[in-house]
Amino acid sequence: RKEVEQDPGPFNVPEGATVAFNCTYSNSASQSFFWYRQDCRKEPKLLMSVYSSGNEDGRFTAQLNRASQYISLLIRDSKLSDSATYLCVVNNNNDMRFGAGTRLTVKP
Amino acid sequence: NAGVTQTPKFQVLKTGQSMTLQCAQDMNHNSMYWYRQDPGMGLRLIYYSASEGTTDKGEVPNGYNVSRLNKREFSLRLESAAPSQTSVYFCASREVGNSPLHFGNGTRLTVT
């Protein structure tokens, strides 16, 4: 079993839709969690850290469920510019592992 | 504000050749990382250095060696390149604790 697993998608949604991604992790001792965004042929860029109590940044909400060992990302009111690959990252004692990424396409 | 700088940006090697990918960061970060990304896939961790003087294997270390030259620099060496090592290589750094990764622009390597 991979340490970090994501549904690869693709997710194709219309503008204005709400879309959610999940990411599961295998090591219950993992300390910190992140969501990154990657555009085609570019380096990943930090979208947001994921805090235990959940956190929001504009249209983006991240949640952590330690009991079930998953993190989620919710995007509300999707924009065309949200089209990208979304990657979850899990930190286990400085060993930072990525999920395979979920491809999102927002259509007009 | 250079952040994380990787060189070269592109490289073509023949099977069996060796090369070193260079990475430097100017953010005084303690930890540095090397990842590879193959088409349509996420990033896979090759090696990391949690602090100056230490290195650890990631999930795909075979065929690679690393050197943490000092706090700023972390190099990745391919001793005998193979076509399976054709990939995009990303270097990243981060501070200790729960801080996120900061990435370089990547090196596109083709082994023929």
List key phrases describing it.
heterodimer, A: 108 residues, mainly beta, 6-stranded mixed β-sheet, 5-stranded antiparallel β-sheet, 0% helix, B: 112 residues, 7-stranded mixed β-sheet, 4-stranded antiparallel β-sheet, 11 strands, globular
Low-confidence stretches of chain B: none
Global mean pLDDT of chain A = 95
**Over the alpha carbons, how many angstroms does the gyration radius of chain A reach?**
13 Å
Could you estimate the helical fraction of the residues of chain B in percent?
Answer: under 10%
- In round numbers, the mean pLDDT of chain B is 95
H-E order of chain B: EEEEEEEEEEE
| Portion in beta strands of chain B | over 45%
Separation of the first and last Cα atoms of chain A: 37 Å
Helical/strand content category of chain B: mainly beta
Query: What does the radius of gyration of chain B come to?
Result: 13 Å
Brief overview, please?
Chain A has no helices and eleven strands.
Indicate the topology:
The complex is a heterodimer of chains A (108) and B (112).
Chain A: E1 4-6, E2 11-14, E3 19-25, E4 32-38, E5 45-50, E6 55-57, E7 60-65, E8 70-75, E9 84-92, E10 95-98, E11 102-107
Parallel strand pairs in A: 2-11
Antiparallel strand pairs in A: 1-3, 3-8, 4-5, 4-9, 6-7, 7-8, 9-10, 9-11
Chain B: E1 4-7, E2 10-13, E3 19-25, E4 31-37, E5 43-49, E6 56-57, E7 65-68, E8 74-78, E9 87-94, E10 102-103, E11 107-111
Parallel strand pairs in B: 2-11
Antiparallel strand pairs in B: 1-3, 3-8, 4-5, 4-9, 5-6, 7-8, 9-10, 9-11
